[in-house]
Amino acid sequence: MHPSVRRAIPSPIYRKLRQRRIHQRIAAFEPRQVEHVYGGARLRINLRDALAEGWYDHDWGSQPEIEALKRGRLVPGATVFDLGAHQAIVALMLAREVGPEGAVIAVEAEPHNVAVARTNIDLNSATNIVVVAAAVSDKVGHAFFSEGLNGAVLPGGRTGKIRVDAVTVDELARHHGSPDVVFVDVEGYEELALRGATETLDAKETDFFVEIHDAATLGACGGDARGVAGHFVSRGYECLTAPASDGPLEGDFRPIDPMLLDRGERCYLIAYAGRRSQAGS
Question: Are 104 and 117 in contact (CB under 8 A)?
């Protein structure tokens, strides 16, 4: 839809049209269950839409970000916050790493993805995962979410968006305990998510993985890659970066590369709060 046409449509009507298109796409897909190995974890997955089919209907190899986090605080018994959990595939992988004594708090705002996530968790009898239906932000309250199969919180007007609960990392920590690991994939909202994690960042008892989105996506939310990394660099975290692609991570994580951050391309960052264990080093 052309932007000028979209602006001419009253917000409630545009929102209903957008939701109808999304629901039609979901209804046109024939759901099915599949079973694959995701980084060593054999999981049963309920496919409910074409996007999830493309992402999840095949085996996944070892995920370098998870392997890197295992050299830090991602250990049995750990508490992990998975922010932007989509349909809980990564949450299930993380749940396997932390074991029955650990916990994964999977935060997802898109209603369709929340429902599928809960189904996937039940299919795999993952009793150590808690789903929080909310967006992560810099303050507790509400946010306006661009509904879609891979939706996002976007600042600005409410046109075409749904109102969802908003939580912060620090508020999650007060309810679920201080996290050992925070896994961040929030479609450009990284800067706001980290602004809501001040207490957690200052405590320096948590390792972070952040998918840093491209410059345009970050800019739409008022952030940039240097600013995202700055939350960790300024506090003395040990930071590693890696380039990203449409598939698995390319290459190893290496000491933070300012040139990589300045390219304006999607990339990955790991921030260790303290000395890593020697296992796997």
Answer: no
